[in-house]
From TrEMBL:
Its cofactor is Fe(2+). Fe cation binds at H115, H119, D311. One of its GO terms (molecular function) is tRNA N(6)-L-threonylcarbamoyladenine synthase activity. Residues 27-318 form the Gcp-like domain. This is tRNA N6-adenosine threonylcarbamoyltransferase. It comes from Borborobacter arsenicus. Belongs to the KAE1 / TsaD family. Keywords: Acyltransferase, Cytoplasm, Iron, Metal-binding, Transferase, tRNA processing. It catalyses: L-threonylcarbamoyladenylate + adenosine(37) in tRNA = N(6)-L-threonylcarbamoyladenosine(37) in tRNA + AMP + H(+). The gene is tsaD.
Length: 356
């Protein structure tokens, strides 16, 4: 079984071919990602119209490259899977319509995939993880803890009540005059800073509600930054280090809560696991905090390679394969309209109809 995946929900134009042979581990035959970071950098964030236009210009070539890299002709592909939401609707339309056209012209099956389901199932592609497990998704647009019980069977345990974590990194960077995307630059600056200089708040820490919040922390960073003028490189480094340490602390508190709940809900689970995904998962301070937390709670810590943690099409192709294998491919995918909002726990297993 071989699936062509297409991802255009945000600022990456991506295509990939993933294969699965009976009795063997899945294989990523190609994984082509074109980042639009440079197009958006001047604006300090993703501009939806620019993103949609860039997807239109790049997608055909990216798909051709993915097929060529995989040494695969369209005729050898069993299905076409495209991200159908959530995300920026302009980009989603470009990707899903292209996939519909390819599917219609080649007589292949179409799969309309939820982007978050792609992130949620990646650890099964890379590590062969079995259900159930916990997913921590921390990216520019999402901050969630999700219980992954099976294909199409997800329960969101926590989400952010304001900013996404990647967004908090990007806004902090902007306030400090660091370039976009902010995450990597904040981490770099933090390496030379004193994490104890500023006592930033740990939003939600110790609260019984399971969710995340980062806007209070952002405000505290702004106050610290504006109270010192002009900011020296050392000030910037100290703010970044203090911010990162507050983030790791707050995140650790929320995740610890979920690990405890997982233990309660699945007392017989012999090898419970926490998977991280999303661009923020690249952060070493956050990683080491989560690693220690998992070790102390007896959880396996699974962090797929960075290229598969950030937006890519291999995870979309793989989610398509998972759905095909589970008999959960939506027979009405050709009629699917892209959804800018599409919560993961509403991606229930579709009722399998007569097909078409
Ligand atoms: P979506 O939310 O739709 O999945 P996205 O494009 O916003 O998409 P990703 O590409 O997964 O998300 O991640 C980008 C985010 O990750 C940005 O906010 C970026 O600042 C953050 N990021 C990247 N590297 C690091 C790092 N080393 N430390 C902290 N944050 C980082
Ligand atoms: Mg991105
Ligand atoms: Fe994503």
């Amino acid at each position: 079984i071989r699936v062509l995946g297409i991802e255009t929900s945000c600022d990456e134009t991506a295509a990939s071919v993933v294969g699965l042979r009976e009795g063997a581990a899945p294989e990523i035959l190609s994984n082509v990602v074109l980042s639009q970071i440079e197009e958006h950098a001047a604006f300090g964030g993703v501009v939806p119209e620019i993103a949609a236009r860039a997807h239109v210009e790049a997608l055909d070539g990216i798909i051709e490259a993915a097929l060529a890299d995989a040494d695969t002709r369209l005729a050898d592909v069993d299905a076409v899977a495209a991200t159908a939401g959530p995300g920026l609707v302009g980009g989603l339309i470009v990707g899903l319509m292209t996939a519909k056209a390819i599917a219609a012209a080649s007589g292949k099956q179409l799969l309309a995939i939820n982007h978050l389901e792609g992130h949620a199932l990646t650890a099964r592609l890379t590590d062969g993880l079995s259900f159930p497990y916990l997913l921590l998704l921390v990216s520019g647009g999402h901050t969630q803890i999700v219980l992954v019980r099976g294909v199409g069977d997800y329960q969101r345990w926590a989400t952010t009540i304001d900013d996404a974590l990647g967004e908090a990194f990007d806004k902090t960077a902007k306030m400090l005059g660091l370039a976009y995307p902010g995450g990597p630059n904040v981490e770099k600056a933090a390496a030379k800073g004193d994490p104890a200089r500023f006592a930033f708040p740990r939003p939600m820490k110790g609260e019984s509600r399971p969710d995340f919040s980062f806007s209070g922390l952002k405000t505290a960073v702004r106050q610290a930054a504006t109270s010192i003028a002009p900011l020296s490189d050392q000030d910037v480094a100290d703010i970044c280090a203090s911010f990162q340490s507050a983030v790791a602390d707050a995140l650790g508190d929320r995740v610890a809560r979920a690990l405890v709940r997982f233990r309660e809900d699945y007392p017989d689970s012999e090898a419970p696991a926490l998977v991280v995904a999303g661009g923020v998962a690249a952060n070493r301070k956050i990683r080491s905090t989560l690693e220690e937390l998992c070790a102390s709670h007896g959880f396996r810590f699974v962090a797929p390679p960075h290229a598969l943690c950030t937006d890519n099409a291999a995870m979309i192709a793989w989610a398509g394969i998972e759905r095909l294998q589970a008999g959960l491919a939506d027979p009405d995918a050709m009629d699917f309209v892209p959804r800018s909002r599409w919560p993961l726990d509403s991606v229930s297993a579709p009722v399998v109809g007569s097909g078409r």
